[in-house]
Design goal:
The complex is a heterodimer of chains A (350) and B (330). By secondary structure, chain A is mainly α. Chain A has a single domain, classed as ABC transporter involved in vitamin B12 uptake, BtuC, CATH 1.10.3470. Chain A contains 15 helices and six strands. Chain B is mainly alpha-helical. Chain B is built from 14 helices and four strands. A two-stranded antiparallel ribbon of chain B has the order 1-4. Chain B has a two-stranded antiparallel sheet with strand order 2-3. The relative contact order of chain B is 0.21. Classes of the chains: A mainly alpha (350), B mainly alpha (330). At the A-B interface, helix 6, helix 12, helix 14 and helix 15 of A face helix 6, helix 12 and helix 14 of B.
């Protein structure tokens, strides 16, 4: 097992790199491959996977399980960023979802299913609120979502009355810790959501609408696209994804912690999307890229854990990755490098 | 012939009105609220937020955003504490961290301008970097016992009012050095924003970067200077925070950047850039502080109401700005 799985992984990575040579996804995939290569060579036990009690265990599985939250957030965030916006409130929405889940189940005695539905419903409402501010009232996205980012954790604490509510219900615990067919259930959740999003955006015209609105809202409005509705829906979807991530986060630790659930995860999600090749200015988006971005961030975090780097210092390498990725994607840098190389003197845009 | 208040003054006037209303409401509702002590504490307790928020105001006026504020403040507090712990003279330590903050800001500004990258992402990177560096300096809270902190800084407080305590003794209230720093920074920054070439360049870039460039405004230099100034003021906020807390902590001030941005917006500065006042930020910081004070006085309200109240106020002021800019467009 511990030989077969890494082998499969490397073959898959190599194939992915070959197929994506001309695509935006190539660079984040290469970064991920390099990081994994580093671990293959220098971090003993990183690729060790074993079957215990019918489930797969190991660092790689942990990365998938722990990365699920950012992957879910990144799905919604990709669409929001593609419309030219950004959603800063997803971390706070996660806290709200977890709070509703725990309060409804423990406090109000609802069944787990109903509590989950209630949590997701409120997340959708929170997303709709953001959408209302951005699409209808035309407030700048950073500002509009800042409101819920600041107030959201307060609302979550209001729901739980400032308590950390713990639960032991098997259904709720399964959400973030369970296994399906030997793999973490969260992975199934991510894959289902990814497939759903991909089908909705790539097999219908919705994705094209999103890209058009992000490229030029006025122009797409004049061509007859429902620009406002598209924007609104993007934020609603981001709210829903954040709700799911919030459920997973609460289930992971078997409690709703309004202060820390999803703290700074909005930044990780934005980072994952940007690493994945979607520009913050909007327009074209890459769902697969965002997923790879999220995995890259999680692999980096896990690498640092495995190498005994203190969790407190971990932001430094993360910052270096952010700055490096930003620089690599900057057209200005490429232009300057090209000039330095003194090679082809093609004018940009010619 | 209709008299019209200049549109950019309306948000500032509204903020001032909110501040007065909140204060008046507090005075009516609570006995102790009329004491000058409340006002003095308002300035003293919020000095570090205020100093950092002034830096954020310049960044936002220029059309950018700075997410690294809280992390830089935390990094500064722990650096000061560690330097003092190693026997560095206090003044040298303070000058060193101020220079460090300015250099950090300049570094971010340089990347933002030179590679034309979004300030949002670069200062986010700066936030992670500063946060991690703080933990590298010293992994946990570090107290400051240097006599400079207790006696020298304490002695700089200016007596401003006398109150009679319940036991009948007359007590002199002093304006702490932290509050003096805050007010001095607001004063200098207001002058710089209004009457210097740098200040006018910042407004010009915030209104329209391309027009500013065509007019001959040195866009790159000004932008880098803005982030340098923000880094410097964040570091100064950190130094003020060490006066206030008598310690340094790399884990502290998480989310301070949000408070700073909220104060700037509530103070009437447009997040789009180009419109706003430093004095508005002073009002914004005081509003945030007075909400906190009110909630403390009330006692039975929980702290999360602070967040909800700030969120609500943000909403109101953003709506107001939106309505005003729409009116001007029409």
């Amino acid at each position: 097992m511990s030989v077969v799985l890494p082998l499969v992984l490397w073959i898959a990575l190599a194939a992915g790199l070959c197929f994506s040579r001309r695509s935006v996804v190539f660079w984040p995939l290469l970064a991920l491959a390099l990081l994994l290569l580093f671990n293959q060579l220098f971090t003993p036990g990183f690729f060790h996977v074993e079957i215990r009690g019918g489930h797969l265990y190991g660092t790689l599985i942990d990365i998938l399980n722990q990365g699920a939250k950012v992957m879910l957030l990144a799905l919604g965030m990709t669409l929001v960023i593609a419309t030219g916006g950004v959603d800063l409130s997803v971390g706070a929405i996660m806290a709200i979802a977890g709070a509703v889940l725990a309060q409804r189940f423990v406090g109000a005695g609802w069944s787990p299913g109903l509590a989950i539905v209630a949590a997701l419903a409120l997340s959708v409402v929170a997303g709709a609120w953001n959408g209302l501010l951005v699409a209808v009232l035309r407030i700048q996205p950073i500002v509009a979502t800042l409101i819920l980012m600041v107030a959201g954790r307060g609302i979550a604490q209001l729901i739980t009355d400032g308590q950390i509510i713990t639960f032991e219900n098997p259904t709720l615990v399964y959400l973030g810790n369970g296994f399906l067919l030997g793999l973490p259930f969260t992975l199934t959740l991510v894959l289902v959501m990814l497939a759903l999003t991909a089908v909705l955006t790539r097999r219908t015209a919705l994705g094209l609408f999103v890209e058009a609105v992000g490229d030029n809202e006025t122009a797409s409005h004049f061509t007859g696209l429902p620009a406002r509705q598209v924007k609104f829906l993007a934020y609603v979807f981001a709210g829903f994804c954040a709700g799911l991530a919030g459920l997973v986060a609460a289930s992971n630790i078997k409690c709703a912690d309004s202060n820390h659930a999803g703290l700074y995860l909005e930044l990780d999600a934005i980072l994952a999307v940007v690493i994945g090749g979607t520009a913050l200015t909007g327009g074209r988006f890459y769902l697969a890229g965002s997923m790879i971005g999220a995995l890259l961030i999680q692999t980096l975090t896990q690498t640092l854990y495995m190498r005994n780097v203190s969790a407190d210092i971990a932001p430094v390498p993360k910052a270096i990755v952010i700055l490096a990725v930003c620089l690599l994607q900057s057209p200005k840098l490429r232009e300057r490098l090209a000039r330095l190389g003194g090679g082809r003197k093609r004018r940009a845009g010619a | 012939m209709k008299f019209r208040v200049p549109a950019q003054l309306i948000p500032l006037a509204a903020s001032a009105a909110v501040l007065v209303l909140l204060y008046a409401g507090g005075c009516l509702a609570f006995d102790g609220f009329t004491s000058p002590r409340v006002v003095i504490n308002l300035f003293g307790d919020n000095a570090f937020v205020g100093v950092a928020a002034v830096g954020a105001t310049f960044v936002i006026l220029s059309g950018g955003i700075d997410l690294s504020v809280g992390a830089v403040v935390a990094l500064t507090t722990i650096s000061v504490a560690a330097l003092l712990g190693h026997g560095v003279p206090p003044l040298a330590a303070v000058l060193l961290v101020l220079a460090g903050g300015a250099a950090f800001g300049a570094f971010l500004g340089f990347i933002i301008h030179w590679f034309e990258l979004p300030p949002f992402l670069i200062t986010l990177g700066g936030m992670f970097l500063a946060r991690g560096l703080g933990f590298m300096v010293h992994p946990e809270s570090l107290g400051i016992t240097h006599p400079f902190y207790g006696e020298t800084v304490g002695g700089l407080a200016i007596p401003v009012a006398h109150v009679t305590t319940a036991s009948g003794r007359v007590q002199t209230l002093t304006l702490p050095f932290t509050a003096q720093c805050f007010l001095a920074v607001v004063l200098v920054a207001s002058v710089a924003a209004k009457w210097t070439r740098f200040g006018r360049n910042v407004y010009a870039i915030g209104s329209s970067e391309s027009s500013a460039r065509l007019m001959g405004v040195p866009v790159g230099k000004t932008k880098i200077l803005v982030y340098t100034l923000a880094g410097f003021l964040s570091a100064l906020g950190g130094v003020v925070a060490t006066f206030y807390m008598q310690s340094g902590n790399p884990a502290s001030f998480v989310g301070l950047e949000l408070d700073a941005i909220a104060a700037v917006v509530i103070g009437g500065t447009l997040l789009r850039g180009g419109v706003g006042f430093i004095s508005g930020t002073l009002v914004g910081v005081l509003i945030l502080g007075i909400i906190q004070t009110l909630i403390n006085f009330k006692g039975d309200l929980n702290t999360w109401w602070t967040k909800i109240a700030i969120g609500g106020l943000l909403l109101v002021f953003i709506m107001l700005q939106q309505a005003l800019s729409r009116r001007r467009r029409e």
